[in-house]
C-alpha cells in the first residue's frame, strides 16, 4: 500500500508540473498582455517600471523559471496583476474555504441522496419509486442549476420566508445553494447507481447467495452495494476539484464570496498570476482526489491489486 501511495504521489507531482508548464506557455502565447490598457496612458518610464515589476519584460522561459522557483521554494504564486498588492496565495486562502464549504456540502448531499435513490430505484424496478427517481434524474440532467437556484429562492425565501435569499454566514445561508449545486449530482449518482445495482443483481454470485439463504440486508450491503458503488466513487474524485470552478453561477446568484468569481474574472482580465495560481490549486485538488479514489478502490474491494501484481 505504501509503495502504491508513493508511486501515485510521484505521478501527481509530475502531472502538476506538466499542467503548470502547458498553462503558463499557453497564457503567454496569447497576443497582448494584461498591462497594455493599464499602462497605455502612463509615462514611458512608469510603464517600463510596471513591466519590470511583474517580470513581463523578460523572456517567457525566464518568467517561467522565476515562477517555478518561487512556487517550489517559497510556495509563492505571485501578485495579482488586476489587484496590485494582493497576493494570489492570500486570495486563495481567503476565498477557497467559502467555495470549499459550499462544495463539500453539495457533494455530500449529492452523493448520499443519489446513491440511496439509485439503490431504491434498482430494487423497485418498474414501480413508482423507480419512475420517480428517473424523473428526478432527468430533471437534474436537463435543468440548469441556476434555474433550480432561482426556483428555490422563490419558494423558500419569497413565498415561505424560511431561508435567506442571498448572503453568507451561518448554516442556513448554505442550504439553498447547496441544494441547487447538488441537484445535478443527485441525478448523476442516482442513474449510475441504479444501472450498476441492476447489473450486479443479475450476476451469478448474487443468485448463489440468494440460494444459500443469505438475508436480504446482508445481500444488499455486503454484495450489491459494495460492488455497485465503485463506478460512483470514480465520479466523486473529479467533482471535488470542480466545486471551485463549477459553482460560479450559484455563488453569483446567492452573493457568496467564493473563489469562483475570482477565477472567471482572472480569465476575463487576463490576470496571468491569478490564472496560474488557481490553475495550480485546482489541478492539485483534482490529481490528489484521484489518488484518494484509487486508494478507496482497494479499501472497498480488496480484490483490486494496488501493486499491479499477480493474484
TrEMBL record:
InterPro entries, per the entry: BPD_transp_1_N, MetI-like, MetI-like_sf
GO biological process: transmembrane transport
Localization terms from the record: Cell membrane
SUPFAM superfamilies for this protein: MetI-like
Record field: transmembrane: 12-30, 102-123, 132-156, 162-184, 228-254, 274-300
Cell membrane among keywords: yes
Membrane topology (UniProt): Multi-pass membrane protein
The ABC transmembrane type-1 domain, residue ranges: 96-297
Keyword entries, A-Z: Cell membrane, Membrane, Transmembrane, Transmembrane helix, Transport
GO cellular component, one term: plasma membrane
Principal location listed in the UniProt entry: membrane
Family affiliation: Belongs to the binding-protein-dependent transport system permease family.
PANTHER family named in the record: DIPEPTIDE TRANSPORT SYSTEM PERMEASE PROTEIN DPPB-RELATED (PTHR43163:SF6)
Protein name as it appears in the record: ABC transporter permease
Native species: Oceanirhabdus seepicola
Source taxonomy: Bacteria, Bacillati, Bacillota, Clostridia, Eubacteriales
Amino acid at each position: 500500500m505504501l509503495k502504491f501511495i508513493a508511486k501515485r504521489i510521484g505521478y501527481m507531482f509530475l502531472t502538476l508540473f506538466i499542467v503548470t508548464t502547458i498553462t503558463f506557455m499557453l497564457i503567454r502565447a496569447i497576443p497582448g498582455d494584461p498591462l497594455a490598457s493599464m499602462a497605455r496612458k502612463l509615462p514611458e518610464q512608469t510603464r517600463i517600471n510596471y513591466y519590470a515589476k511583474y517580470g513581463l519584460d523578460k523572456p517567457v522561459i525566464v518568467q517561467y523559471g522565476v515562477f517555478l522557483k518561487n512556487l517550489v521554494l517559497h510556495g509563492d504564486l505571485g501578485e495579482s496583476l488586476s489587484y496590485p498588492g494582493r497576493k494570489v496565495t492570500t486570495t486563495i486562502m481567503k476565498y477557497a474555504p467559502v467555495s470549499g464549504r459550499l462544495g463539500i456540502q453539495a457533494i455530500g448531499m449529492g452523493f448520499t441522496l443519489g446513491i440511496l435513490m439509485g439503490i431504491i430505484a434498482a430494487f423497485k424496478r418498474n414501480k413508482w419509486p423507480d419512475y420517480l427517481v428517473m424523473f428526478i434524474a432527468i430533471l437534474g440532467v436537463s435543468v440548469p442549476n441556476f434555474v433550480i437556484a432561482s426556483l428555490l429562492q422563490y419558494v423558500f425565501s419569497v413565498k415561505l420566508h424560511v431561508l435567506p435569499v442571498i448572503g453568507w454566514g451561518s448554516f442556513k445561508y448554505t442550504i439553498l445553494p447547496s441544494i441547487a449545486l447538488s441537484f445535478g449530482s443527485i441525478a448523476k449518482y442516482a442513474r449510475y447507481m441504479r444501472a450498476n445495482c441492476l447489473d450486479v443483481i443479475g450476476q451469478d454470485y448474487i443468485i448463489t447467495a440468494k440460494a444459500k439463504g443469505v438475508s436480504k440486508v446482508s445481500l444488499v450491503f455486503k454484495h450489491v452495494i459494495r460492488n455497485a458503488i465503485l463506478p460512483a466513487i470514480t465520479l466523486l474524485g473529479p467533482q471535488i476539484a470542480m466545486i471551485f470552478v463549477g459553482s460560479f453561477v450559484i455563488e453569483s446568484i446567492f452573493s457568496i464570496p467564493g473563489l469562483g468569481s475570482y477565477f472567471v474574472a482572472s480569465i476575463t482580465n487576463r490576470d496571468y498570476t491569478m490564472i496560474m495560481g488557481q490553475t495550480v490549486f485546482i489541478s492539485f485538488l483534482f490529481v490528489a482526489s484521484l489518488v484518494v479514489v484509487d486508494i478507496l478502490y482497494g479499501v472497498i474491494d480488496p480484490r483490486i491489486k494496488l501493486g499491479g501484481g499477480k493474484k
